[in-house]
Predict the 3D structure of the following.
Amino acid sequence: MWSTLKLLVMSLLAIEILEDVSGCWVIRICLYQVETCAYCSFSEILDVFGPSVSTAQGADWQRQRKLTAPAFNEQKSSMTETGLSSTATDVRTLALHVLAYVGFQKSFPFGSISKDAEGSGTSNYRDSLAIILHHVLIAVVLPAKVFDLPFLPAKWKRVGLAKRNFRNYMLDQLGKEKELQLQGKPGSGNLMSNLVRASEEVSNVKASPKAPGEEPQEVKTLTIDEILGNVFVFNFAGHDTTAIVLASSLYSLVAHPDVQDWISDEMNYYLPGEDPESWVYHTHYSKLKRTLAVLLETVRLYNPLLSIPKYTGLNHCTLRIGGETKTIPPNTLVIPTMMALHTHPRYWGSDSLDWRPSRWIKPEPEGPENNKADATILPEEQLLVPEKGSFIAWSEGVQNCPGKKFAQVEFVATMATLFRNYKVQPVTVGTETIQQARRRVLDVVETSQMELLLQMQNPERVKVKWSRR
């Protein structure tokens, strides 16, 4: 634990301001030497229920990524909910319900977690996970044995109970899936089932020999702890980030009714009927480029992560920066500053600080009403492919976010369900005009605070009302 704290202190001391661009200080890259054990300690705090693809390194990461990638399928994200009222709170419930359905095919009434569950000894899968995610710092930092101490605060004891309940639930589901497999029956098709079956399918597969003449080695399957660890980390990584981005996007759309019209035109052009059950992933998802552009623009400006650390491991690495070759030594942690990169005028233009989803669409509509393009050009529109290295919202390279496509499909499905036939506007306060109310919404979006992730500080200041188009 001390090495983790030492690493965090070092990260604060390692910031170096390299240049001033358009009046904004840009922190390009911060480098410092760290011990291998310090980096491992920093990442392994996520191993609450076992090792996972998010904390593995080297060959072990390659093995886990190969086994877990098929299990985390974006086509599973077809379940969406509507009826948002208290937006920032409700999108957390929405994200939790999507994960509950994808992870274990469990559906729950739309509402916040049971207050009784917080104070009792019983809770279902969803409530246990919600308690863990709500108190995630306590859950990941404190060892399991600490939660048995009699003098702990009641809140911490509830977190410990939720961890035990969640682990027991995962073990129960794991046992059921293995039993189905032994009986030769198809699995339930959820995340746990897919992890179990993906692991077993490679148990007899031989890996390619590293050199001529060598015997191929068996691919090591996922252990029980690794299966549990990956189920948890997919839930952890996919909940708060998704909820924060959904909330920021919805509030940004509240402040920009023209963008609401822009994406609604696309939805009504491509999506048949009003029933989301009639929408087909393979047929419709890839066509909703404007809707995806809203997500891309939101994570460009309001990403919940400030940076995505990269580690050189045992080998050195070379970078080309400003025409020069820089060598990064082994055992070095590199922390690119995402916000500086995503708002650099060199890549995003003079309006790089403005939320403008149409920048992601080519050909981009012209003129001041550039978000109100004629629907007849929709089939010609293409998504912008940013210059390599200028957009790293889901990281980049071989160790990018395995849930990227899943998050994108979940976002597009949610937006389509909401905005195909509905619009939203802020509730005015006192004597303010609707324009002043929209400006107030933007101020809320742009006033963030860093908890575990970067998020809006006071989203409850905004009340919205939905109406049919």
Observations:
- The longest strand covers residues 29-33.
- The chain is about 45% helix and 10% strand.
- The two ends are 54 Å apart (CA to CA).
